[in-house]
């Protein structure tokens, strides 16, 4: 793998963009021929304004149907680009299911993909055969059995720390499955929906949705909590039937270190992934 560079070529500066989107009608973040993607629409809008090519690097390349409450990207633009009202101008061009929250020149050594400390995802489930309210239909998944939050938390806690999550990552050639899980817990919100929150330094392909599916198996009483840790340690990929639907998944936060640690994070991340093309959860 060619090491990406933090150097910005002469005459250019790095722009940080924070955005949010409803992934329902998108075929994911990354550009794909003939399909509607967030990257394609954002880059088209930005190029229309700047009258130049725009190539974005994003913190987490979400898959079809996955949402983002707070996504982060960077793009290198001519340093004389006017950015004061750029977020407003972009939102005038973008459709209503994508909104730019902020667009500002990034500090030295900023990198949206290789700089973060962690990414945090949320998963919402309407359990017990409850009727899904119309305003919850896009960002939650229904489940016919009642889930035991206590059992799900017992199981999820056993997976915290750095492990090889091969079991819960759908195969992609050359990818690393060693991840550090920092947070994995469940609660019920004020509407009674089951809400899972999971934070890691990075995620493998389908890792979050596989972990959600396994936790649900525990929550409905199919397996004991220890089953999740045992399954992880056996390193045998679980069935695709455990992968929960994309629509219940939302990227809610990308956490960056203080500015003076940007370069160290970048170097550490690349060293850990040397020879492997790391992907965000899709």
Write the layout of secondary structure elements.
Blueprint: E1 12-21, H1 38-50, E2 56-58, E3 67-78, H2 86-93, E4 98-105, E5 118-126, E6 141-142, H3 149-157, E7 161-164, E8 178-188, E9 194-200, H4 207-219, H5 226-234, E10 249-255, H6 262-272
Parallel strand pairs: 3-10, 5-6
Antiparallel strand pairs: 1-3, 1-4, 2-3, 5-9, 5-10, 7-8, 8-9
Helix pairs in contact: 1-2, 3-4
Structure description:
This protein is globular. It starts with 11 loop residues before the first strand and ends in a 10-residue tail after the last helix. It is an alpha+beta fold and about 280 residues long. The protein has six helices and ten strands. It folds into two domains: about 10-115 and about 260-270, Alpha-Beta Plaits; about 120-250, Alpha-Beta Plaits (2-Layer Sandwich). One of its GO terms (molecular function) is RNA binding. It is an enzyme of class 5 (isomerase). Homodimer. Formation of pseudouridine at positions 38, 39 and 40 in the anticodon stem and loop of transfer RNAs.
């Amino acid at each position: 793998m060619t090491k990406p560079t933090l150097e910005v070529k002469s005459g250019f500066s790095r722009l940080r963009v924070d955005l949010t989107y409803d992934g329902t009608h998108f075929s994911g973040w990354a550009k794909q021929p003939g399909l509607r993607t967030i990257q394609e629409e954002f880059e088209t809008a930005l190029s229309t304004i700047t009258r130049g090519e725009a190539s974005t690097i994003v913190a987490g390349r979400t898959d079809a149907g996955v949402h983002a409450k707070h996504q982060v990207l960077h793009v290198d633009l001519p340093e004389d680009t006017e950015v004061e009202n750029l977020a407003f101008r972009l939102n005038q061009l973008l459709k209503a299911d994508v909104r730019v929250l902020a667009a500002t020149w990034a500090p030295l050594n900023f990198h949206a993909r290789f700089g973060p400390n962690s990414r945090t995802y949320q998963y919402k489930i309407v359990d017990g055969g409850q009727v899904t309210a119309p305003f919850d239909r896009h960002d939650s998944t229904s489940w016919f059995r009642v889930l035991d939050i206590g059992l799900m938390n017992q199981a999820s806690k056993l997976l915290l720390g750095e492990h090889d999550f091969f079991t819960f990552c759908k195969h992609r050639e050359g990818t690393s499955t060693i991840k550090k899980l920092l947070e994995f817990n469940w609660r019920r919100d004020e509407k009674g929906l089951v809400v899972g929150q999971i934070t890691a330094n990075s995620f493998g392909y389908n890792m979050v949705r596989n972990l959600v599916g396994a936790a649900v198996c525990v929550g409905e009483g199919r397996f004991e909590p220890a089953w999740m840790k045992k399954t992880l340690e056996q390193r045998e990929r679980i069935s695709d039937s455990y992968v929960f639907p994309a629509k219940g998944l939302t990227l809610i936060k990308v956490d960056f270190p203080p500015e003076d640690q940007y370069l160290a994070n970048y170097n550490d991340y690349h060293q850990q992934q040397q020879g492997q093309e790391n992907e965000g959860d899709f």
